Amino acid sequence: MIELNGNTLHLNPDSLLPPVDCPLLIEVAPGVFKKAIRETYVKRKDKEGGLLFRLEDGFEIKGRFRWTYP
């Protein structure tokens, strides 16, 4: 659990795959959160299979992140 703007958030671990095409809040650095959507499915579930996210500003970021729903 983490507190953000007075709200307590449950963060899912980066090992748990978030749903595709669903609004998410991902932790890109400790305590730094970005709104994003996971756009693609993965071929590998292991840590080497990076996930592709589109941030709300249109940029794409690839990796595994702790996540929650906004």
Q: Per CATH, what is the topology? A: SH3 type barrels
Percent range of helical residues = under 10%
| Broad shape | globular
Largest sheet geometry: 5 strands, antiparallel
Q: Any guess at the CATH architecture?
A: Roll
**H/E series:** EEEEEEE
Estimated structural class: mainly beta
CATH top level?
Answer: Mainly Beta
Share of residues in strands: over 45%
Q: Give the mean pLDDT.
A: 86
Number of domains: 1
Radius of gyration: 12 Å
Query: Gap between N and C termini, in Å?
Result: 14 Å
> Which blocks of ≥5 consecutive residues have pLDDT under 50?
none
Count of helical regions? 0
Spatial ordering of strands, largest sheet: 6-5-4-3-7
Number of strands: 7
Structure description:
By secondary structure, the protein is mainly β. The protein has one domain (2-68): SH3 type barrels, CATH 2.30.30. Helix content is 0%, strand content 46%. It contains no helices and seven strands. It has strands spanning 2-4, 7-9, 23-29, 32-38, 51-55, 60-63, 66-68. The strands form two sheets. The protein has a five-stranded antiparallel sheet with strand order 6-5-4-3-7, with no helix packed on it. Strands 1-2 form a two-stranded antiparallel ribbon. Strand 3 (23-29) and strand 4 (32-38) form a beta hairpin. The mean pLDDT is 86.
